[in-house]
Specification:
- This protein is α/β, with parallel strands linked by helices and 257 residues long.
- It has helices at 9-17, 21-27, 49-55, 75-84, 97-110, 113-116, 149-154, 156-161, 165-184, 204-214; strands at 35-36, 46-47, 65-68, 89-93, 119-122, 137-143, 185-195, 218-220, 228-230, 235-237, 248-255.
- It has 10 helices and 11 strands.
Length: 257
């Protein structure tokens, strides 16, 4: 039997984006100017404007209890902390010790003592969070681990070891995380699901699966996101049509009361 030919990164994403793929992958190498998250920070924190815009979609209010499930390196946790203004509680979680170390450094460096005092850093597998807390948070941010194709394409080492099994594995992990988020958020509370992937299986595919299984428990909240393209669920910012910003996918969900 003839050995099955390995599918290349190029072939895999051309199959998804067709004639658009050439321009999209070329846009990955386009220089983009990161922006400071906020002048309120003690020390500047620069990130992709698309990430800054997506983080602002989570409707956080002073006094809320918020969970950032996959928080490192810390940009979105900073965004949440500034809007809480030292009132409420923010649990920032990341299961990687090295990433948690970076997260702690960012929070200590950038936040005032008041803002930093309401944040606790945890190191759990967030897909199992629902075993320990249920309906405990007003808002949950899930900026999920993803294929991060822009980074892969620009890194020869990562590109050389890429395989189609990676997005499939990640999509399963993302769904487990999102399912956990639905259990730990309060009724009436919101979940912001986001990735920096361009793979539909990791983006609206994960949300679609949630609706198929838990459609009676959750609803989607529409939003305006500059430079974004609407999808069946949520929206995506792609650099070929957003002046180099992104990629960044987002979907805002509410747990029904």
């Amino acid at each position: 039997m003839k050995k099955k030919e390995r599918i290349s990164f190029d072939d895999f994403y051309f199959d998804i984006y067709k004639d658009r793929w050439q321009g999209l992958k070329e846009s990955f190498g386009k220089e983009k100017e990161n922006v400071n998250l906020s002048e309120e920070l003690r020390h500047p924190y620069f990130l992709d404007p698309a990430s800054k815009m997506v983080a602002s979609l989570l409707p956080v209010k002073k006094g809320d209890r918020v969970l950032d499930m996959c928080a490192a390196p810390g940009g979105k946790t900073l965004s949440i902390a500034l809007r809480l203004s030292g009132e409420g509680e923010l649990v920032s979680n990341d299961r990687s010790p090295e990433r948690r170390k970076r997260l702690k450094s960012v929070l200590d460096e950038c936040l005032s003592e008041k803002d930093r005092s309401i944040i606790s850093i945890k190191g759990y597998d967030a897909s199992s969070w629902c075993l320990y807390e249920k309906e405990a948070y007003d808002e949950v941010l899930l900026d999920a681990p993803c294929s991060s194709e822009r980074h892969v394409y620009l890194d020869a080492k990562h590109l050389s070891i890429w395989s189609p099994s990676r997005p499939k594995r990640l999509a399963k992990e993302q769904y487990a995380l999102l399912s956990s988020a639905l259990i730990v958020v309060k009724k009436g509370g919101c979940i912001l699901y986001s990735t920096c992937s361009i793979n539909p299986e990791e983006d609206e595919g994960v949300v679609s699966r949630l609706f198929k299984k838990h459609g009676t428990e959750v609803e989607e909240i529409p939003f305006d996101l500059p430079f974004s393209e609407p999808l069946e669920h949520g929206a995506i910012i792609l650099p070929d049509r957003a002046d180099g910003l992104g990629p960044m996918y987002a979907c805002l969900l509410r747990k029904k009361k």
